[in-house]
Specification:
alpha/beta, binds adenosine-5'-diphosphate, ATP binding, MutS, DNA mismatch repair protein, Chain A, domain 3, 44% helix, damaged DNA binding, DNA_mismatch_repair_MutS-lik_N, DNA-binding, 7 domains, Nucleotidyltransferase, domain 5
Length: 874
Amino acid sequence: MENLTPMMRQYLDLKELYKDCILFFRLGDFYEMFFEDAITASKELEITLTGRDCGLKERAPMCGVPYHSADSYIAKLIDRGYKVAICEQIEDPSAAKGIVKRDVVRIITPGTVIDPHLLQEKENNYIMAIYCSKEGIGVSFGDISTGEMRTTEFFGPKAPCSLLDEIAKISPREIIFNSLTYLDHPLESEIVAVVNTNLYLFDAWAFEKDYAQKKIKDHFHLLALDGLGLADKELSVAATGALLEYLQQTQKNSLKHIHQVRYYTIEQFMILDKFTRRNLELTETIRDKSKKGSLLWVMDKTNTAMGARMLRRWIEEPLQDVASIQSRLDAVEELKVNLLAREDLKELLGQVYDLERLVARISYGNANGRDLISLKLSLEVLPEIRKILSNLSTSRLKNILDHIDPLEEVRNLIDEAIVDDPPLTIKEGGIIKDSYHPEIASLREAITNGKSWIASLESKERQLTGIKSLKISYNKVFGYFIEVTKSNLSAVPQHYMRKQTLANAERYITPELKEVESRILGAEEKIVELEYQVFIQIREEIGKHTKKIQDTATALAALDVLVSFAEISDKFGYTKPVITEKEEIHIINGRHPVVERTMPLGMFVANDTLLDCNENRFAIITGPNMAGKSTYMRQVALIVLMAQIGCFVPADKAAIGIVDRIFTRVGASDDLSQGQSTFMVEMSELANILNNATRKSLIILDEIGRGTSTYDGLSIAWAVVEHISNYENIGARTLFATHYHELTELEGILDGVKNYCISVKEHGDDIIFLRKIIRGGADQSYGIQVAKLAGISETVIHRAKQILEDLEAHDINRSKPTLWKKKHPEKNSQEQQLDLFTYQYEGVINALKKVDIMNMTPMEAMNCLYKLINMMKN
Ligand code: ADP
């Protein structure tokens, strides 16, 4: 090891500290990687692996990427779950004695990305800390690209379930944890099944109570945790403290822009489990995970990236508090009615840049001149936005107005100091206005004067020497020079000093020229340094306003979302729902917000809904495949959800009693990758519903029991209806689509159960879908007609009809649960069993009928019995 070159020793010392990262080691214009890192990175990034002498016998494996294009390589590594430690030269190489000092300036991990081109503009990039202890689970998460941070905690046996729901909602890119075992229950595989994330074990001491408390107090400059509402929230404190520790370790930055952590409880919001989020296609479709076709796609008419992110959050977190929902709805109404104000606001919001991320970059010390100009342009529209808002009267909009700070001092500062079109980098000058800084102005003047003196020198020297082709040029190696072609060399004056010989010209300098040149270069160097310093000061000055800018950004984001709600409500004909605490859902002419958008105007058939936790709490919906059952049930769920987000809804009228959770069990899931059968998945989703639903929940069940035999399936479905509809158990508002027509018998037997079907019209051999939901049960499945519509060949359809007739004649499918039997005493259970028996053992029965027992010897009777038993067995 003594033989190592000093640079390699420096490298290895640093690598020792950042073992879990790929170390990007800055050497000149490159980031180099060595040893194992080089082997990994060359494979992942598909770059050439070379070697470098390191003082040892073998050359060190090495690969590198140019520093100016490092971002895309870093992004690739982060995407694959690696952490990248950026090591820079931290002193000027020309001033360094011996080897240049280097240090890691930042660690980039999947959840701590801030560079705009590594981030999705309309999505947050969350990192989460999980603290598992015997008492419960603490969760804290944040987005350092915006400065948001929130925390909560869960207790008891349901804690893992709540954790998974939160993870599904937040979709963190990275999770750090002290342990992923809760009360002997390992959680890792379940987390991985919910979200594609990166899990890293983090130091246990960072989660410890005293350390975590101190970390939080230090960061937020507090003496006690009461101010954050965390005084008695030990689990939240552990997670938050550890998260702050991790962020500081990786970012090596004070993270001033994270100026608060908000405590919330999951009960504040409507709870949606991962199945429901997916089934309702809130932010992406099930099929191809695209935004198009999701609820977000319909609702997103936002004009800012901040608004788009907030909308996503609102959709993920519908409210439960009537007053808060009402205040959003009132604001939407006002903006819907006041078209003029809305149009103006849309226009103005369109001019606002991503303030949240701009201010994070400013606070981080990453913002350039263009970022400040974007900030200025955004702030310039604030007075007009404020003016419009001051003429509006609803409380939510008034509240938004109160939170929009005009930030004139920031705007004025940028306006006075920064040129309108600054360059991308802050190390080349050209950023600060002359009028802002006299010294910069006079240096610029010196440069301009010098340059114009040089420009005039050309004509002066041409005259003096009589060389018409004489010209003055500049290059980086020699600076300014006078160039004379070979044919004119005889006229070159004595005092010209030769500098360089070309094929057909000579280049000269003069002392006078050199002096002016050094004045220009000196001034240029000075000005670049000075402008940099001034820029940093201005950026820091603006950084002091971080909180105000963030508050303004949040207010603008909320305004943007409300304007977007008003816009879709107006454009798509939505109405204001009435929000109540009553347990009812009463919708007149409701429509599916997404499906109706994919159809020509007016083609979607609107339907009513009445669920009231009373006579009408459980709707059993029958009807053929393709009739529109799923669409109808999802439409009800989405209307409730939109209402609780505070948006108008696609209906003529809607009264929505607050729903605490929506559960969906829809179709066959494709979780087969996890080694579970479709039926197993279906049953575990069902178990989740039965265990967690309350009387305030809305349950959507589509085809329960399909994944198993008819008898099993029907029995389970039947028992589920009995259980859910019963107040003693759950009594939640439920929509249940089923193929088991037998279930329609339950109306009149079970309290609150009502039958509905989606009507179809027979047309000869075919059916026409009317899409209208009506009271009563469907009497036929029309499966064969639907198969025909789907394009199954005439031969198969014909044969299917024959089989159906045959089966119906044998009546194989008529084993009814007890209630049915009670209601139909004419067909007793023995008879039913006989039906079944008859069908399955027809051969044996026929053989038995033929036995002439009176004319048999005992031996023959034994043989016959033996044969019959074998027939049965086979
Ligand atoms: P089911 O669940 O009964 O098999 P779906 O709900 O999947 O049927 O509906 C099948 C198709 O019918 C949908 O893709 C949609 O295009 C159309 N559809 C459903 N409901 C309506 C409606 N109310 N108005 C117009 N078209 C509808």
